[in-house]
Amino acid sequence: MSVDALKAKIRDVPDFPEPGIVFKDIMPLLADPGCLRETVDLLADWTEPRKPDLILGAEARGFILGASLAYKLGCGFVAARRPGKLPWKTVSATYALEYGENALELHADAISTGARVLVHDDVLATGGTARAICDLAEQLGGEIVGVAFVIELGFLDGRKHLDGYEVRSLITY
Ligand code: AMP
């Protein structure tokens, strides 16, 4: 299956969640059995040689393929969640979004010192989310072995926030 077949299953939703934003909707891709499998396999092909112990997924869409990737590679999964959602002690980071501001939290004991961590989200836009998650994971003693996305909005140059990390996206706009 080609990357173009995956791209064909990504729906552009203009003016969501705000005027001027073209939202990249991965739900049709996830709903297609072949595309779902291919997406996980392609992400896993890139991730496996980096030998992660943990996949760290961003709320909420980063949980879906992040957990699939963890299962396929035999890793653990850690969730970066919105404030107030995690029940235990947390560490927190606030950052700017393409639309507005956001904050994410990790459980303070989610990552042991020296753990090899692969960060995953569905879309790389401005890079603020992924960078904040990398910073939190490192703060807890993790080593970031890569940052993997399904989609990259290249025109927003989010990679500039991820300088020094290995970054992979399957589809670039
Ligand atoms: P950023 O921090 O700007 O890289 O934004 C990435 C986060 O916001 C990811 O969790 C994405 O799911 C979401 N996001 C930002 N822009 C878009 C977009 N145009 N389409 C879909 N999701 C987006």
Chain-wise SSE layout:
Elements: H1 3-7, E1 11-14, E2 22-25, H2 27-31, H3 33-47, E3 54-58, H4 61-73, E4 76-80, E5 90-96, E6 101-107, E7 116-124, H5 128-139, E8 143-152, E9 167-172
Parallel strand pairs: 3-4, 3-7, 7-8, 8-9
Antiparallel strand pairs: 1-2, 5-6
Helix pairs in contact: 3-4
How would you characterize this protein structure?
The chain has 173 residues and is α/β, with parallel strands linked by helices. Helix content is 29%, strand content 33%. The chain contains five helices and nine strands; from the N terminus they run αββααβαββββαββ. The protein has helices at residues 3-7, 27-31, 33-47, 61-73, 128-139; strands spanning 11-14, 22-25, 54-58, 76-80, 90-96, 101-107, 116-124, 143-152, 167-172. The strands form three sheets. It has a five-stranded parallel beta sheet with strand order 4-3-7-8-9, with helices on both faces. Strands 1-2 form a two-stranded antiparallel sheet. A two-stranded antiparallel sheet has the order 5-6. Helix 3 crosses helix 4. The longest helix has 15 residues, at 33-47. The chain is globular. It starts with a helix and ends with a strand. It binds adenosine monophosphate. Adenosine monophosphate is lined by residues 21-24, 58, 61, 97-98, 121-129, 153, 158. Adenosine monophosphate (AMP) is lined by residues 21-24, 58, 61, 97-98, 121-129, 153, 158.
